[in-house]
Write a structure and sequence with these properties.
Elements (H helix, E strand, L loop, with lengths): L1 E5 L4 H12 L6 E5 L8 E4 L2 E4 L3 H6 L4 E4 L3 H13 L3 E4 L11 E2 L2 H4 L9 E3 L3 H17 L1 E10 L6 H12 L29 H13 L6 E8 L6 E9 L5 H9 L4 E3 L11 H4 L5 E8 L6 E8 L3 H17 L4
Parallel strand pairs: 1-2, 1-5, 5-6, 6-8, 7-8, 9-10, 12-13
Antiparallel strand pairs: 3-4, 9-11, 11-14, 13-14
Helix pairs in contact: 1-10, 5-7, 5-10
């Protein structure tokens, strides 16, 4: 099994290598791929040093799987070249997510849609993944009508530059800015770029991607995405209106029985999900489960997950595991 990690030197790339090692993914040959400025540098995987190679060399090597986390422009240009060489690409950027010819996959929900013909597979947005992990089993039972979501997203979702900005501001150091304003002691209602409709790209990803993953456009989602000064882990306040009524015990039971979801919900002991507890874990944590008392069939809940793991690296590796297990490569 020849595996290429494209964008190996980036924040998500580093976590991908960590997750591949933790899960003992069956690699016989590992190709670490990055931009030209990183070619020739060394990275360690399971105690063995690997030399970083460029994209053209990686295409020629004809890997079985290439896991991309190198940005949308790189994916648009290079993913088709890998695919033409026979490599199955799992792409973590937004480049292919809404392409109608490409599958958008959260393995616990819709991996069974994959076939050996899928040579470019899209990994959803980090905020989308944790949202649909909690919503999918509830939608199956109660049929969602409308979802209103506000996110509280960590600076790691922006990248190394943003993490450094936060660290500098906490330390009182003037440095390079990833955001148009300070992020320490602040909250920016601005994730990704603004679009003509007044929403950001991040908010529109949250509105559109769940419909594609669940293959259902009968429900609608309205989102507000906010960047907050946490180093890792995204949180979401979610209000869901269903067509059918529910009991809170049923909701907790369904979520408890959902693979990859952990319920943390006991106000008596101040038990609820927080980014500090989700750090370095693969589960999606759900708590603050309660009825919306202003209208029928409506639920409030709080969802937290490590955006670099289940929100990115782990989900991509799980897709690769599914492909191997089901002999689709």
């Amino acid at each position: 099994m020849k595996v290429a990690v494209v964008g190996a030197t980036g924040m998500v790339g580093e976590v991908m290598l960590k997750v591949l090692a933790e899960r003992n993914f069956p690699i016989t040959e590992l190709l670490l791929v990055a931009s030209e400025r990183s070619v020739g540098k060394k990275l360690s995987y399971k105690g063995v040093e690997h030399t970083i190679i460029g994209l053209a060399e990686a295409v020629a090597a004809k890997a079985d799987i290439a896991i991309f986390s190198a940005g949308g422009d790189t994916s648009l240009e290079w993913a088709p070249k890998f695919a033409e060489a026979g490599t199955t690409v799992i792409d973590n950027s937004s480049a292919w997510r809404m392409d109608p010819t490409k599958k958008l996959v959260v393995p616990e929900i819709n991996a069974d849609a994959l076939t050996s013909e899928d040579k470019i597979i899209a990994n959803p947005n980090c905020s989308t993944i944790q949202l649909v992990m909690a919503l999918a089993p509830l939608h199956k039972k109660y049929q969602m009508k409308r979802v209103v979501i506000s996110t509280y997203q960590s600076v790691s979702g922006t990248g190394v530059k943003a993490v450094k900005q936060l660290e500098n501001e906490i330390a009182g150091i003037k440095g390079e800015m990833a955001y148009p304003y300070p992020i320490s002691r602040n909250a920016l209602p601005h994730c990704d770029v603004f679009m003509e409709n007044g929403y950001t790209k991040e908010e529109m990803k949250l509105a559109r991607e769940p419909q594609k993953i669940l293959d259902d456009r009968s429900f609608s989602i309205s989102a507000t995405a906010v960047r907050i000064p946490t180093a890792g882990g995204h949180s979401e306040s979610v209000n869901v209106e269903f067509h059918n009524d529910f009991t809170l015990n049923e909701i907790r039971g369904i979520l408890n029985d959902t693979e990859g979801v952990t319920v943390q919900d006991n106000p008596d002991t101040n038990t609820y999900p927080m980014p500090i507890y989700a750090h370095d874990k693969d589960e999606v944590f759900v708590g603050r489960i309660r009825r919306d008392e202003t209208q029928p069939n409506t639920l409030n809940m709080w969802i937290v997950s490590d955006n670099l793991r289940k929100g990115a690296a782990t989900n991509a590796v799980q897709i690769a595991e599914y492909l191997v297990k089901n002999q689709l490569i």
